[in-house]
Predict the 3D structure of the following.
Amino acid sequence: MSSPHKHLSWLTLRRSLFRLRRAADRMRSPRRIVASAIAVIFLCVYVLNGFLILASRRTADPESLRLWLSGGMVLYLIYHAVRCVWTEKQVDMEYTDAEKLWLGGAPLKRSTVAGYKVNTVFFSALLKTFFLVIALAPDVQHAGLLATGVFAALVLLETVRMIWQRLVSGLSRRHLIGARVALSAIAFAAILQFFGQLAAITPSGSQPGVYVLNSFRAIGGIASCDAVQWMAIGWRPAALLATTVDITSHTAVQMLASVMLVPFAIFTLVRVDGWAASAILDREKARLRSGDFRGPSSDPAERAGELTEDRLADRIEALLPRRMGDSVALVWRQALSIRRYYGTILFSFLVPTLLCLSPLLTGRMGNQWAFVIAGIALCTMLLAPPALRLDFRRDLKRMLLLRSLPLRPIQAVLGQLTLPILITVTFQWTTLAIAASVCGPGWPQLIGWGGMLSALAVFTFATENALFLAYPHHEHAQGFGMVVRANVMFLGKATLIAAAVGALLVWVSICQSLFSDPLSVPVYVTGAVAATWSLAVGAMMVTAWCWRRFDISADLPPE
């Protein structure tokens, strides 16, 4: 082994050991003891659930499971590919600042650095494999082969994702537009196929709940179709290995193919990375030869636009009270930065809007409105926070700058959260207006549910940021903590939704028992909206308290 590779292996080993020790110390820290206890409880419950509940359910067909494993990887890859081509700024394989400093300036080949980056996804792939094996163990005959196949498929998926990301970064503007059109057409065709299969397997006039349950079968039908399976040819050996019923001579071939596809993908990543770097350099040389030395700030049109925006911001700040004016600067900063990826945000909310409005196609006027409301609430809690990271979660590396601003905690929170909340509320009311025009629920229903859903948006983003400030993490963080965090957050949101539905049902029964018919509806609407907004305001105050206690020296996580 050459000296640079030897030192890199030593560095990787030492860093892994250091991170294990650091994770153990952080779990025992008094500041994180609550999060550590929740993580341990979640793991214990998950493992017990796997052995006691999952083992007693009806097993899935091995052929269907194989199609799910291979086709599901492709569906996720299609989603990532569409999102990647519509993102203006492409990062260099998500290297951290420390990796750029120590590895980018080291005497290492680019291929070595690319291979090192793939190695960093192994641990997160192992954790995901652990959770999937527990969930799928009752459906297969050989748990060891299941773990091997799932692990190989996940590593291959992450490697292909990085390949596509680097490929897009090297495309010219013309080819990038072509990629956007082609991938958007593929995604649109998949959506049309989803609704077509959903309509085919669900009898006309069924309850919207039946459509929701059958949507999983429709997604499975897309993953099982011939077109997706042809695109999933790289994952088919791993899927066959994971669902092996009887061990034969073909099993060894499947295992060899599953394992060998990973280094082949790494080799492809190295070649694509080299091509992308050369393409980017050639474009820069062409700009220099053409005499295009101007930066964005020197463009007269863009400079005039910036001056107009600055004057508009000054006028808005002058109209607001002095205490609110300081928060406007943060809101305006978020609005300027959102222009770079407005297309991604529009796409992220277009699909949820269509899904929320899909109950209107069932032909049943009785409970369509309820399912539209439920869909908006689920999208607000589950999809809006990851799609709109225009708050403290995006500014972890700028915490020192934010802390130095002469703002009270509540002003900083309002400045950071106003824009994502406004975008989410716009999505809610747009969907409600379309649904109300079809269902005609009446003004009390529209005002009541609109007010509660708006409060839910405030509560969701305030809670997300409060938890982030209490237990911060980097944007592209991987590892045990992130996997457990994602699962615990999902379960917590599901529990919160169930508790909110139960509380609303209790409040309805109280209003009906204490007030007469003409009075019960306005009392119910007023009380429900007031209660939800009280919780939302309380969540904002908790977020402000978390920001006030945020300690840069202790709370900033290392990279």
